[in-house]
Each structure stands twice: as C-alpha cells, then as structure tokens.
Task: structure prediction
Amino acid sequence: MTTSDANPPAWVKSARQLERERQRRRTGRRSASVAAVSTVVFLALVIGLLVSSPGWPRVRQTFFSVGQLGDAFPDVLRGFWLNVEIFLIAEPLILGLGLLVALARSLTGPVFFPIRALAVGYTDVFRGVPTILLVYLIGFGVPALNLRGVPSDPAVLGGAALVLSYGAYVAEVFRAGIDSIHPSQRAAARSLGLSHVQSLRFVVLPQAVRRVVPPLLNDFSSLQKDTALVAVLGPLEALRQAQIHSADTFNYTPFLAAALLFIALTVPLARFTDHLAARAERRRAPGGGT
Result:
C-alpha cells in the first residue's frame, strides 16, 4: 500500500460550490434586511394610526396606565402562580386520562364494546360542551350534591373541569397518533412473539407519542390560557385579581398585566412547539435521518 493510498487527499470545495454558498449567504442577508425594514415600517404605521386616533388619550389612560400597572402587578403575579399550579397539576392528569381513553377506543373484539362505547361517549360529550360551561357545571353542581369526601375547593373543581375537557381532546390526539402507525409495525412485532399489549407498549406507543408531541404542546398552550376560566368560581388567580383591581379603580390596565404574564408563558411554549414540528418534518424528509 502506497503513501497516497494510506493518506487520501482532503476533500476541497470547488469554486462553483463556494460561489453557491456565498450567493446563499447574500440572499439570506438580503431577505433578513427586507424583512426587518418591512416589519419596522408596518409597526410604525400601526402605532402611528393608533396614536393619532381621536380616542387614543382615553384609551391610554384606561388600558395603559403605568401607575395602575405598578399597583396591580404584584397581586396579579401572586394570582398567576395559582394558574401555573393548576396547569402543572392538570397536565399530567390530562395526559394519563387521554392516553387511557385512546387505548380504550383502540380495543378490538366484541367483548370490549362497552368500554369502547364509554370512551366514544366521553370524547363526544366533553368535546361538545364549552369549557366554561363545564367549569360552571362542575364548580357549582358538585358542591350542591353534598357528597362526603368530595373536595369543594373552587380551584380543585375548576382544575377537574379542565382535566375532563382537555382529556377528551388529548385522547383524540393520541388516537390519531396510534392510528398513524402502519399496520406492518404491529405485524412485525407479533411475528417476533410479542403479545398485543407488548407490541402496543414497545412498538406502537413510542412512535405514536413522538409523532403527536407538537399537537400536544399546542393543546397545553391553550390549557395554560384556559386556567383563567377558573376565575368564574372565585379563586384568586390572575384574572380574578385583575377584576378586583379593575372594579376598585374603573381602570382596565390590570387586565393588561394578566395578559402580559400569560404571553410570557405561552409564547416560548409556542416557539418550542414550532421547533419540534420543524424537526419532525426534517426527520420525515428523504435523507433527513432518524
């Protein structure tokens, strides 16, 4: 073996390849510059139209009062932690409930018909009832039953209503993920000696869960916002605190404080969801890897 065979020459990009890369960089910089300029011009037009409107002084005083924002923000922030607690407790419960319902709907055989019918009825009913109505029905209806051992805390009852409502949506997301797995995957697992439960646990579910992560995160972004619906039952969460301050001062700036807190939590989650969706699309593309 010669020296040239042991140490092959390093690969060097051709002049045409280097020119293509330079052209792509120039195009990228040009596109970014055009996007930045158009964004600045658009925002300037919107802000100018808003500020020049006849009712702007009244709107600024009513919705954008810095003093009212500073006074209400500590209480709204304190209430926002209750929203976060409801979200963190409800999320794993929704995942578990949704997965169980999806698995129930995937059962085969006539003996499992009652379970499938119950799962279908649950998803149909709780997806059909508006979430705020469900909060009212559970929040005020369950305490009226005077059942021993059933919690009467409005935050708990409101969280239970969110779990029941979002569990139906998440169940359909899981079911779509399970149905998206090609039947050959199950057949291959069964041919290796795995039982139906084992093939579902070790072959189907891991792939299905990975596929439905982006839509699940979208649902949980909506869940974080819908925790504000619990305010109708009376717990002092962010929206309720904003309502109290607004009722005292007849100023709506506290609602802006609550909105900013929700935005600070949901926007990063939305961008993370977009990142996961883009990564999944690249993996599915030819040559995208695993």
Observations:
- Residues 5 and 123 are 67 Å apart (CA to CA).
- The mean pLDDT is 87.
- The radius of gyration is 27 Å.
- The chain is about 80% helix and 0% strand.
